[in-house]
């Protein structure tokens, strides 16, 4: 039995409670609250102090589920200390609730494990900082809707007025206000006396109480209250807290609520319901198709940016115009285009080049990624998506400074995103195989696991009593009006977005975005988690649904899923995630279509690819033709411009004929052959160089035609010779201008050779993927936890060991280093060597860090002491000049 459960060894402080824990319990605490060991505390007293700081308590409260949080809120309004029976009464009410009674021990155990509550069941104490955050106050009402106690609310009432309230309530007078308020509180706590008092109340007064009982408990009155209010004020059922303001005392509200601290308790998490059921094979096939589309979309995006993508905005990110252009190129809506751009960036396939004229382009890692197996490439995208803190759904919204958030720009990181994504997929993994979730029940479950800020600090769902009384008060008075509470307890930070909604809104939106993004990425199919998606998060195989239908259920056909669902898998470590991703890729590979080595050429200058093409064929066909439509089959169209593009890339007409003949299952149509020959015959007839630039042609009639064309006015052309024209524009602009006029010029070098514009891609220097923004300190691994616990216990041993000061040394306060002179230090160490005693020493290391140690000196020589260090559990040698002092340990 722990000291927290043994009344004979009841702890007097949180530090003593922590001191009574074993290493497993301490490890669980540090794992759930990693900020407590950043840095590692010197002893358990410092650990307890850090566990009670405002920032640490807020972080711990934010990670409680709704029922555990309700338990903490009940303790905040309970007596300090409280008994388990008192806490159970506040949670279950006078009538009791079996579900609450069954769930309360686990919730209380969670609060104890996280050092938010300490003490045995007979003396439960909420950490002082948590009580300050959760207890009700006029500025920040409690989520319970309760107000201050009679003693707190009546502290400012005059002694004479207190005695008048006692007399009106039928209680004997007392000698002072304190005893009078105690007597009034005792009246409200007594069920029989309280019932008798309320039986005498006018119905209008009871109606006022009913309007305030579930909160907010504050109301406003005029200087001359109506009779129904006067009746309540005279008996202390309403107490004034400020001029024109009254409050319903906590004891009165609890008695009217039948002892319940909360209007509704939620001891059991809401189940995730299945909205539809599909055949698992259909789910996997659909998800595999989406996965293939995801790979093709990322490749198409980066192929579009091969020669250097859009420019980087001065503030960072992609401009709205470039995002729209990218969306058109990918044939998707702009929010979807932002998702694909951010996904490629998170996977390290896309980055800025860092040049003076900074642009986005593919990274060298993209070339390596393209050559890998399809399943492995998908696993890299899915893993990057799971771990990314960047949130594409925020693109287009505004930040706290009213600046538009842009794709690839700053301000998109949300540290909660990875945790929400994993929780959504993990809850999907808890459903039967092939079951798609009901979004509403999924969001309700997530909200129970991490309640919104309003549920933690007040300002949640308004009470139906939080409104003015409908009846008009008597003339010259104003009825009780519920006063709106604050938006949250101080110190509870809102989300850093500053954009749409606070933290609770963001988490809900993150969940919705996760469902949509998982579908686009192929992690889910038809809303249900696929087999490779299940492997991606390390989830065990799902149970088959009892319903054996093979057809999907209708949207309104909800299949009940009870609490006996598959256990939700925990988050994976980086090594485990890599293993899971590899397994997911292996599961996906057989589901993806095999690439084809042929197309079907048609007489209308199109080619149909009936499936995915092998990479060399797809790359060459992408140069030779333009994509006209996508889908299960891709349609390519041959145009003069696309054929010229292939010729510019170094291909000849004979090469193109041979390529089409080798890869077409149908004969090459005559119109396509004529098109290639006609463009090849004209290709290179004009030559463009630098003069700034020039045009030369053996046929001066062609040059005359160019000079006479009005569209050439912007090129700044002038004749240098019968066969040469000079231009003010650069060669690239001149090439584009002439091509726009219908000519097919070719660029040439300074030596007069034709320049071949090969389709070599532009790449950025090597880049690393963006690092996720952590949500607080990382969870320590087992090795670090063991070392930290050992160090804390060692420091605690040194700081709490009983000791006797060396004669003549100054008294040392607890926690301070012993101080003795050099001679006294040397004499004490030498005496301990002779008597085999253990000493307490103060030691300052080379970096100036001070610590306390318990040692058993073995020998002292050469300015050093060799001793067995009990705090480190090993033999060490210490320079004498770094020892600040010694003291003998007590018995």
Automatic annotation (TrEMBL):
Pfam families: Helicase_C_3, WYL. One of its GO terms (molecular function) is helicase activity. Residues 824-886 form the WYL domain. The keyword Metal-binding does not apply. Residues 447-503, 532-572 are annotated as: Disordered. InterPro entries: WYL_dom, XPB/Ssl2_N. Residues 599-721 form the Helicase XPB/Ssl2 N-terminal domain. Residues 474-495 have a biased composition (Low complexity). The keyword Metal-binding does not apply. PROSITE patterns: WYL. It comes from the Bacteria. Keywords: ATP-binding, Helicase, Hydrolase, Nucleotide-binding. This is Helicase C-terminal domain-containing protein. It comes from Streptomyces griseoincarnatus.
